[in-house]
């Protein structure tokens, strides 16, 4: 069963997060365009889609799975917030650390992710990386 989303149980929202998690950049772009509806605000459309109850967005999903092409598109082309937090205060950088996706971790650091941003329990990505 697909996860419930903050914007509702829409098929497009589920498809967007699934495409991010799977690293399917072409499907991700098509779905983002459909969600935008021709308004020319792709970043806003993408950032509005989060997993209900967890707040994880497309960059969280892509970072956790090491989907570099999607991460690059989100960060460099759309300009999404690399320090966006989910409901637990985890940033995409934390998701990359937890999953051990080193290339993604380094990419996010190189593109402005804050290694000192505390999560909901006061731990920082730097602490998590050192402990892992």
Automatic annotation (TrEMBL):
Residues 113-132 are annotated as: Disordered. Keywords: ANK repeat. Pfam families: Ank_2 (PF12796). ANK repeats lie at residues 54-87, 88-120. PANTHER family: ANKYRIN REPEAT FAMILY PROTEIN, OS02G0493050 PROTEIN. This is Uncharacterized protein. It comes from Aegilops tauschii subsp. strangulata. The lineage of its organism: Eukaryota, Viridiplantae, Streptophyta, Embryophyta, Tracheophyta.
């Amino acid at each position: 069963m697909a996860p419930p989303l903050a914007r509702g149980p829409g098929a497009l929202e589920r498809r967007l997060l699934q495409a991010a998690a799977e690293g399917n950049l072409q499907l991700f772009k098509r779905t983002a365009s459909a969600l935008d509806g021709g308004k020319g605000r792709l970043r806003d459309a993408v950032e509005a889609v989060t997993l209900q109850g967890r707040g994880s967005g497309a960059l969280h999903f892509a970072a956790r799975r090491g989907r570099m092409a999607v991460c690059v598109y989100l960060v460099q082309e759309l300009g999404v917030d690399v320090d966006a937090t989910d409901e637990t205060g985890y940033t995409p950088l934390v998701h990359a650390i937890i999953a051990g996706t080193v290339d993604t971790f380094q990419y996010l650091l190189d593109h402005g992710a804050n290694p000192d941003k505390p999560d909901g329990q006061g731990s920082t990505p730097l602490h998590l990386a050192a402990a892992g």
